[in-house]
Amino acid sequence: MDFPIFHIDGMGNRMLVAVVAILHVLINHGLAVGAMPLITALEWWGERTGDRRWDDFAYRFLTFCFVITTTVGAMTGVGIWITTSLVNPSAIGSLLRVFFWAWFTEWLVFITEVCLILAYYLLWKRWQGARKRAHIRLGLFLSLFSWITMALIVAILGFMMSTGDWRNKPSLLTGVFNPLYLPQLCFRTGFAMVSAGLLGWALTLFFTRKSDDFRPRIVRALAGWVLAWTPVCAGGAWWYWRRIPEWSAANIPTALTTQDFTRWHTNLQSVAISIVGGILLLSVLAVLLPRRMPRLVLALPFAASLLLLGYFERVREFIRKPYAIANYLYANGVREEDMALLRRDGILPHATYAQVRLITPETRTAAGREVFLLACTRCHTLRGMNSIDVRLAKMFGPGPWDSIAVANYIRDMHVPRPFMPPFPGNEAELDALAGWLIEQHGQTAPLAGAQVAGIQPAPKLTDEELRRQATFQAAKPAEAIE
Amino acid sequence: MTNMNPTQAMPIPHDLPLPLPLPRALLEVLLVLFFILHILFVNLMVGGSIFALLFEFLGLRRPAYDALARAIGRTITVNKSLAVVMGVGPLLALNLLHTVQFYTANSLTGFAWAAVIPLVTAAFLLTYAHKYSWDWLADRKRWHLALGTVPVLLFLAIPFIFLVNANLMLFPERWAEVRGFFSALWMPNVFPRYLHFLLASLAVTALFLGAWFGRPGFPVEEFLPGFTRPQLRRLFYRATLHVSVAQFAAGPLVYFTLPRPGVTTALTLSILAGVVCAAVALVLLKREIGAADPEVGRHFWPITSLLTLTVLFMATGRHLYREERLRPHHALIQQETKAYQEASKAARNQTPASRPPE
User: Could you tell me how many CB contacts below 8 A there are between chain A and chain B?
Assistant: First the structure.
């Protein structure tokens, strides 16, 4: 409402954030939080047994993690900030104000983590012999700081899903110790360790030869690591699901999948159990029969674990709906406390960059477009991913659609579909939106955001105009637009 | 256009109705300090990649330069990691202090702003590819040079995105003119600031490399055969001097193209103080270059301290301009936000519950 509307009508804004965020989380969990303690353990084992092959494997494993985390990992981390500031600036801006100290502390830990990984990697070859133990200690510190970085960020993620006491007692601590914090942290810690072990399996294909008798030894060791951490991962997941607040639990069937794939959701639990069970089974087999593990079996579990985390992240993103920040800010960037005002006056008079303020027969189409941009585009596109046109076509058929039916549907949709925010405008705006959506049906031109079309804000209404508009529309909404 | 009253034609958004977590003045100090830390490593990353490529080209004729280029290449990957991580602090402070203006600039240049993620990632990955393929492509040097050229081009292009955003946020009265990144690129001051940044990157990196390769414990003859320690120090001091002299042309260009109003006496004094420090540093540099071999490097710390002061004064000047430029806009935003919150509260009190009827 207070920012120009960035909008991508093809992939959708939500997908832009999701791609960057999920990629980052995958790298952060598997290649940093999980991999660093595993690599340190492998290095320690090499030192203890005096077998150089453990050390060599650990170094190559670290090289892979170092390059990926300091490029794709680092930039997708910053990228979450960049994309959310484009897609939902109100949400990220509010979170930064509430969670400044968490973010600031996280930054200090992050600087330490980066310095430690640079030192750990660049000193590996130099700190051999008498200094090896000091190098292993460096690995332990790095592991600890990687975990602390995640622990802080999970607090922020947990807060977004469930504000706990924050609304009543707005402070950092009430935000951090929200009911979902510890379960999430437990799941993510276990998952990070498991996925690092599975990544190690996949890397044995590149770093060892089949004929090499070291391969079964490293495969067995990694399987032991996975087996040790799987209960933490599974237990954390179970704890997490039990703690999800009632309001989001009500949304879970929708949250797990898009509405187009609702048939998936009944099977999803069994899919998750299958993946975890499959990983457990393969790990047991790898411990017992490390020489018989086929190449595909070594590579696939890591991909399966990524799938599991991808689903998990998606659930997290979806179940907080209709909010971006629980009970405070809706997914479309409208604050819950402003709803009364927006329903009375309309959103257009108060939205900084609206091109239309007053709805007349001449401005009705332009107003509909503006209302769509303001109220719908954070989650929906016109003709791309999660297209509003496609959704309405499913509901009302190929057309022509009835304006009153569409308006009625939008007005009340948040009741049968609790994941949708209530419509943040008045009756005239609702009618304009319905009219514009009907007009757009069957057309092909994509909807341009402010990054292409720019802004042309209309002058704000005077208090007198605003009062007249509110009174007029409250009295005769239908006539105002006919 | 640049002399128009900035409060005219200016969109006045509402601010977020949440208090700042720190006093505004403290956040401003942190912003300046964090920004200097960040830009230092950005300078070293950009300047390092340019020097590495340049010396690799020179290495086609004289192999000693190839070894030097390779040694410089090793510093880039470390500096680039620190550049990213140090960028979080100033971004955090800027997001808090100028939420509305910064996010608006981001949105108006949205595709370019989002493209920072793949572009920087690609530049980093290619930098690693260039660094780790030195031996592998030793017989196909032109391919290796081509591989090194791509990240340098990316490092040269990406700062435009940041500069355009940092510039655009200062001119709310011109937001309505913008149609994407390229239209904002041509706003006054972007290119002068870019030139200033680029020269600063080269100067900072040359000073750093002179100290890095000239450090007492570094076995120059072993790692960089064909060079002696004084030679290297002199080479990079000379580069620092020449580039810094060029800054005396680029600096005034930035100053005189700064759109008015916003240029205050405090800003001018801050810039002048920086210029004085830089001028003294250049005199010392000149003496250093002409000194006998054992003497080269004895003024390193005074030179570095003076140039650090220059950076501090320049960064302060940059901040003073931003604050002065945005002061009227901030005042109007606070006024508008207060009125909006009062209207919202009044509307809530009219309705029995704040939640909409279901």
Answer: 190
